[in-house]
TrEMBL record:
Its membrane topology: Multi-pass membrane protein
Record's GO cellular component terms: plasma membrane
Organism: Thermostaphylospora chromogena
Main location: membrane
Protein name as catalogued: Probable membrane transporter protein
Short name of any one Pfam family annotated for the protein: TauE
InterPro entries with a match to the protein in the record: TM_pro_TauE-like (IPR002781), TSUP (IPR052017)
Record bears the keyword Membrane: yes
Keyword terms, alphabetized: Cell membrane, Membrane, Transmembrane, Transmembrane helix, Transport
Length: 254
């Protein structure tokens, strides 16, 4: 790999960190860059997780300093996410990701329509939705279902987490993004443990990208906190469209 390719990957990692910190979906930027640079698919997935886990964790710390999140929710969901993401990564061979892409595209289309047609979605906190039953539902959906999806497929995980916390618990988009970073850190750790154990991670490249991912994530988290829910909503819609285009190309045209 020459210097120009490495520079491209470092820039892509910074951009991915920014997108991930704001709304999730940084894999849209980082993973294709690794593939274009000639990294084999499994090693690209593994190295992407290594870079992402540092950026997502750093964004989580930044959000935690200024945004309240429920540790009784985040801690158990995050712990479940580590285990289920590792199981998802281990199941990837048995459940081909290509088979899941049409379903993911349908869900993404629904997400995009809800956010576009309901301007008030995630604009403010709805505390009356935060019942014990809904908290447990959020833990199961995010720490089990979405975490397992991240291990198998991955794209859009952070965005799905934000939508889940907003829809189930009535969080505003900024608070949901802050909470999502805790769970997403867990999913990245779980998948990384599996990939690392099987020797798929390019450690030197991944750690270099992690530094840039952290820089982008710090800028993204601060931007989201400063600009508020309206800004997060706009970025969310852009990422939904981009992710639909990417998945559609991979599934039907590639």
């Amino acid at each position: 790999m020459d210097a120009a390719q490495i520079l491209l990957l470092l820039v892509a990692a910074a951009g991915a960190g920014w997108v991930d910190a704001v709304v999730g979906g940084g894999g849209l930027v980082q993973l294709p860059a690794l593939l274009v640079a000639g990294v084999p698919p499994v090693q690209a997935l593994a190295t992407n997780k290594l870079a992402s886990v540092f950026g997502t964790a750093s964004a989580a710390v930044t959000y935690a300093r200024t945004t309240k999140f429920d540790r009784k929710l985040a801690v158990p969901a995050g712990a479940c996410a580590v285990v289920l993401a590792a199981l998802g990564a281990a199941s990837a061979a048995a459940i081909p990701s290509q088979a899941l892409i049409p379903l993911v595209m349908v869900v993404l289309t629904g997400v995009g329509l809800v956010v576009a047609l309901r301007p008030g979605f995630g604009a403010r906190v709805r505390p009356h939705l935060r019942t014990p039953a809904r908290v447990w539902a959020a833990i199961l959906v995010t720490g089990v279902g979405i975490a397992f999806y991240d291990g198998i497929v991955g794209p859009g995980t952070g965005m799905f987490l934000i939508i889940a916390f907003t829809a189930i618990l009535g969080l505003d988009l900024v608070s949901a993004s802050a909470t999502a970073k805790i769970i997403n850190t867990g999913t990245n750790i779980g998948a990384l443990l599996f990939f690392g154990y099987h020797g798929h991670v390019l450690w030197a490249l991944g750690l270099g990208m992690a530094v840039c991912n952290i820089a982008g994530a710090q800028l993204g988290a601060r931007t989201a906190l400063r600009r508020g829910t309206r800004f997060v909503r706009i970025v969310l819609l852009v990422v939904v469209v981009a992710l639909l285009a990417r998945l559609g190309y991979d599934r039907f045209l590639a």
